[in-house]
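Issue: ligand-bound run for acetyl coenzyme *A - logging full I/O for the record.

Environment: standard queue, default settings, no custom constraints.

Inputs:
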Amino acid sequence: MTKVLRSVVTGVGGYLPDKVVTNQDLAMFVDTSDEWIRERTGIHQRHKADDDQAASDLAVIAAQRALEAAGRTPDDVDLIIVATTTPDLTFPATAALVQRKLGCPIGIAFDVQAVCSGFVYALSVADGFVARGRSKCALVIGSETMTRLMDWNDRGTCVLFGDGAGAVVLEPQDGEGAVSDRGLLGFALRADGTKQDLLFVDGGPGTTGTRGFLRMQGNQVFRHAVVNISEAIHAAAEDAGVPVASVDWFIPHQANQRILEGVARRVGIDEHKVISTVAQHANTSAASIPLALDQGVKDGRVKPGQLLLLEAMGGGLTWGACVLRL
Ligand code: ACO
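Outputs:
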């Protein structure tokens, strides 16, 4: 077999802000109920960042934990990619702020903006550096303060989102070019800009000059989600050269329990292989996949050598999937 360089996940870390907001807490000032939110979404609670915590602060803690798990230090890091929709500032990139706060040496640092699909996009971008030998130790981080984009008068959106960060360390390792290799094995990334109106933020520095609020036609997004994600999953599995049903764990973007289950059913993945954190974390956008991965690793379900399937869909619309062996 041909020798190939693979981007291997060598450490995973997550961080959730201390403050927990339950559905009952929300029902005290939003026209909603615990029952409605649980039934329609599976969400029980979400975490909320303190006012003085920005995306870079959440990212730094998740990154420190991932580096520790990988047995690496900030000195080793030569590439930082942060997937975020809620950067601290318009610029510099949140990744550059993370570099400074972690104390990493001069290297490459930039953000990727693909909303909830950001982490899958960022992994693919990082693979372009690591699997070409251009990075020896990369941090790929999803970090979001989505609660800052909520219109608290819009009950159709404000109950769905939470804050948090998740990170992985990627390092190059020789592989055989086989599906038994550890590392990122296959991707499918998609975007359809014609569906912008289904999910967007109605502000920005170049238009309104305001931060804006998240707007979503939830039921329309829902309709696209299962079909789009399923297609991308099949394409990523084909790219990796593995049957979808052979994955050990399905670690989806945590938007809605009904979407997770619908996708798993449609692509033929056993429900016991689904890692779900939506009840506790709600939708943390680009952070939700690495946070779910961290949960699975921490509780001992997800182990090195296992085949993982990640997928996400978000604003853009963007969507995508990734197959990797841990
Ligand atoms: N509490 C009580 N009632 C509510 C609430 C609420 N929080 N929100 C909406 N309702 C009401 C609506 O007003 C509507 O009432 P009506 O029938 O009297 O008009 C009714 O519930 C049904 O509304 P729908 O929007 O049709 O409800 P649906 O079953 O579609 O569930 C939901 C809404 C949960 C948003 C669902 O559509 C969904 O999960 N969509 C996908 C979200 C997603 O995946 N987003 C992508 C990622 S996010 C990102 O990229 C940033």
